[in-house]
Amino acid sequence: MRKYFILTAILAVFTSMLFAQTGPAELPYSFGRKAISQNVDVQTMPVVDVEKLYREDATNVEKSRPLRTSVGFAMDKTFENSGRKDVLEDGSTLWRAKFVSEGAVMTYLVFNHFNLPEEGKLFIYSPDHEQVFGPYTNADLQESGSFETDNIIGDELVVEYYEPSNASFKGEVNIAAVMHTYRDFLHVSSDVKGPHGTADGNCHIDVVCPEGQPWHYPINSVVCISITANTEEGWAGFLCSGAMINNVRMDKTPYVLTADHCIEADNQTHKFYFNYQVSTCGGSTGIYNRVANGGVIVARSNTTNTMQASDFALLRITGNLGVTYRDSIFFAGWDRTGTASVGAGIHHPGGDWKKISFPKSISAPTTGQAANKYFVVSWRTNPNKGVTEQGSSGSPLFNANSRIIGTLTSGSSYCNYPQGTDNYGRMSYHWTNNNNSNNARKLQPWLDPDNTGAMVLDGMLYSGEVITGINGYSQTVPTFDIYPNPTQDGRITIQGEFLPEEAVCNVYNAMGQLVMSRNVFTDATFTMQVGDLDNGIYFVELIGSERTYKSKLVIAR
Questions:
Q1: What would the pLDDT profile of 392-421 be if each residue is shown by its tens digit?
Q2: From the candidates 196, 204, 261, 270, which is the catalytic residue?
Q3: How far apart are CA 308 and CA 34, in angstroms?
Q4: 257 neighbors 396 (Cβ within 8 angstroms)
């Protein structure tokens, strides 16, 4: 599977984000071919009453339900009954269709049938060609027979399929839904709340703040999960949190632990957002396009009453783990002894940037709840050290040794009610789900497939290095070269031993004030323009997934 995202920008002036392509350059067939008409059939979706959706959401803010972000329009669109089909001179075919859902923050498609020859190329893109994803292949298909595309920012998208005349067979697809994302959980529009995005309140702590430093590795296990399902009320998209989790074989099976109540349908589709966090403490910008597309449910507690079981679900990522974030992944360790020590909760409240919260105490449930199923967490309130909210569902509770001991299922804490408590289903109960004989109802067959009887397991980096406790990480601050330095025209070249990845470039003045912040792609050498800054001494910081680089710059005209 190959995927690309292209955002037209002029790197020298950094007027917008620039994302790297994850593979050799390949574009839709119609691009740049003047002889091909750009008059594509358009299907416009009914108007979405966003205010009504938010009113509905306001009456359903329980953490025992996932956070709704999108609604969808049921489709039954194929190459034969929709779109524009052109038969080209050489006998090849080009099919295109455009979908519009006015006012959407983002749009995407869900397929429930997809069978293309290896020679066929299917893409989705924005009408202005600034955003392109694909080509999608049969490898994108999930085990349920469905898959969802990547997000196109904005309310219009075009889907295009090119099939050469010598293709091994005739491709077939069925578009089951056009999805309209109305909640800006990825912070792609200009009117978001700021550093707290759609989170409720301002008590949440960014994971890159000093409080999160000792928890660097557990932080890198936590993901934001986007779920799309055809529910009883129709197509909808939801958000939960979860964590990559280690297994006794330490074979890097991409398991994600979350909550059972995040499962809206057995044939749902999934996206997993890695390193979705701000780049600076209290900041409002970060990277959000590190996505693995596709997952399957391997085990779940499967109950309609979250208080009758420990409310867990174990997913396995089926999509590719991208090279830009793969090496930063941490497979969290776990502790199924049933005992607790105060550690941290790491989560995506309201689908916001990743946050960290610190418990004041962990206790047994109150009367009427099974004591062996849940931990009850009270949060620090003086000073406030974070809480959880809808969207945090399924997020891990770590003990003092940075091992998962529970997953968030319900609770009453919010920023405006920090004295509320939250319930976390216990790993000890997840393990066999009250001695359930069905492997699809417990964790043990998946996290300890050889039945070793392990009670605790340490976390592991993608490299295979085992990490014990929370103090195994120390931040390195390598430098890099800037030339010319001093610069007279503001155009500089940056050179260093960088990981090839999306990063954030921050420039501070001599007083330590942030005067410029840009998203960049770090390569061995790249250029940028700082001509808008006044003469003086500046400190330049590059923040990547694994390292922070720093250097000094002088502007003298």
A1: 999 999 999 999 999 999 999 999 899 999
A2: 261
A3: 63
A4: yes
Amino acid at 487: T
Q: Tell me, yes or no, if 206 is annotated catalytic.
A: no
List pLDDT tens digits, range 142-174.
777 788 999 999 999 999 999 999 999 999 999
261 flagged as catalytic: yes
- Identify the CA nearest to 407 among candidates 415, 396, 399, 422: 396
* Residue 393: active-site member: yes
Virtual torsion, Cα 17, 21, 25, 28, nearest 10 deg? -70
Torsion of CA 50, 51, 55, 60, to 10 degrees: 20
Identify the active-site residue in 155, 184, 311, 458: 311
Identify the CA nearest to 477 among candidates 213, 207, 212, 211. Answer: 213
Q: How confident is the model at residue 534, as a pLDDT?
A: 87
How many CB atoms lie under 10 A from the CB of residue 31? 12
Rounded Cα–Cα distance for residues 88 and 116 (Å):
19
List beta partners, residue 93. Answer: 87, 163
* Closest by Cα among 218, 247, 209 to 401: 218
Task: Give the number of other Cβ atoms within 10 Å of residue 441's Cβ.
Answer: 20
Element (H, E) at 457: strand 456-457
Active-site option among 30, 221, 310, 393 = 393
C-alpha to C-alpha distance for 162 and 160, rounded to whole angstroms? 7
Amino acid letter, residue 157: L
pLDDT at 476: 55
> Which residues touch 529 (CB under 8 Å, ≥6 apart)?
12, 13, 14, 490, 491, 492
221, 294, 225: which is closest to 261 by C-alpha?
Answer: 225
